[in-house]
Amino acid sequence: MGSPISCETFLERARARFGDRYDYGGIVYKSYKTPIAIHCRLHPVKLIAITPEKHLQTTGGCKFCLRQSRIRMLERELQRDAVDRPDRLASSSPAPTLPGPAILEASSAAQLTERVRQSASRTD
Questions:
Q1: Per-residue pLDDT at 96 exceeds 70
Q2: Would 82 be classed as within a structural domain?
């Protein structure tokens, strides 16, 4: 087991990781594994109850900040895919799709292969 982490050490690590994103003014620090209450400065809707350990290991604990970062990550991924494949986006014909529920009804690989061929020929 590691050495206990003091309140000062936790605050140094938290400020080094998150800067001024969270308000640590009202915390009552007991131990590294005991929950504390902090505020997000961007979304001060309600208190965030989180252990100091999880606060430093995760994105901080603010569910609104987490949601925004996930949206930014998804948008960045979608833009990256669009840049990587401009020929697919520029074509006027829709991309071939597989039949939805019909795949589940196929009992053999041969039937599935035939249905995919039929679907591809319909879109051409």
A1: no
A2: no
CA distance 44 to 114: 57
CA 73, 65, 57, 21 torsion-angle sign: positive
CA dihedral for 109, 115, 121, 124, sign (positive or negative):
negative
CA distances from 29 to 13, 63, 95, 100, 117 (A): 14, 22, 57, 55, 65
Length reported for the chain: 124
Alpha carbons 23 and 36: distance in angstroms, whole number? 12
Helix (H, G, I), strand (E, B) or coil at 36: strand
What is the domain range of residue 50?
A: 1-60
- Residues 88-104, mean pLDDT to the nearest whole number: 54
Global pTM reads 0.57
